[in-house]
Amino acid sequence: MSLPAQLPLDLGHRPASGRDDFLVAPSNAEAIAWLDAWPAWPAPALTLFGPAGCGKTHLAHVWRARSHATLVSGEDLDRADLPGLLGNARAVAVDDADRVAGRRAREEALFHLYNLARDAGGHLLLLSGRPPSRWRMRLADLRSRVKAAPAVGVEAPDDALLAAVLVKLFADRQLRPGLDVITYLLARMERSLDAAGRIVAATDRLSLAARRAITVPLVREVLADLDRT
After folding, report:
1. 176 CB-contact burial (10 Å; exposed 0-12 / middle 13-18 / buried 19+)
2. Residue 173 belongs to what domain range?
3. Which of 109, 179, 201, 219 has its CA 20 to 30 A from that of 38?
4. Are residues 147 and 173 in the same domain?
5. Which parts of the sequence belong to the Hda lid domain (predicted)?
């Protein structure tokens, strides 16, 4: 793997209301377009699905900042005050929504929440590691509603996006590592945006504590330390 001499920072750059900026890339562009289209969604729900660390939780926070939605875990739905969750904003983000599948009380709660949102002209943003077609829901009415709503995949970040995110996260801390550092990290790090955040934070801490410049030997130590934790 190699990077061009000029780091790929020409990705779309978007301010996110109430959150850090985020970068638009092929892996997340379709999801961002759907969030931008809110509230003109064709159904009361939208599902964002993708692997851990792909950025869907960040996108959900961006949507929440716009919609004033509440956030609930799918595991907690059967214990939640559903009308209270919907609230005046008439918007709810459900994390790990696929975890309702196979649990009757949770499925019934999501079904009720869907109907409340629909009747109030509100919306649900469902987050999942898997597309709804792979949720093994027992409640037929819930299954038909969720499968009929749009579902958009968010892919794992590619090298261009990871490089841009690393550079941005370092820049947010007033740090300017060389291209060799970014290239080294890209070849060895976990392929997730969460991992990029952990690596940059740990690199900053070690650099300050040891009073060392950010070099390949330093980030090698960082990666080794993170692997041990």
Report:
1. exposed
2. 158-228
3. 109
4. no
5. 172-223
Read out DSSP for 136-170? ----HHHHHHHHHS-EEE-PPP-HHHHHHHHHHHH
Q: Hey, what's the torsion of the CAs at 153, 155, 160, 161, to 10 degrees?
A: 70
pLDDT tens digit string along 73-100? 999 999 999 999 999 999 999 999 999 9
Q: What gap in Å lies between CA 25 and CA 155, rounded to an integer?
A: 10
Which H or E element spans position 92? Answer: strand 91-95
Length of the chain in terms of residues written: 229
Domain identity same for 81 and 173: no
pLDDT, tens digit, 9 for 90 and up, residues 87-138: 999 999 999 999 999 999 999 999 999 999 999 999 999 999 999 999 999 9
pTM over 0.90: no
CATH of the domain at 47: 3.40.50.300
Q: Which residues contact 211 (CB under 8 A, 6 or more apart)?
A: none
- Does residue 224 carry a pLDDT above 90? yes
| Element of type H or E holding 54 | none
Q: How many domains does the chain have?
A: 2
Q: What DSSP string runs through 189-218?
A: S-SSHHHHHHHHHHHHHHHHHHT----HHH
Which residues partner with 73 through β-bridges?
95
- Pair (32, 112) in one structural domain: yes
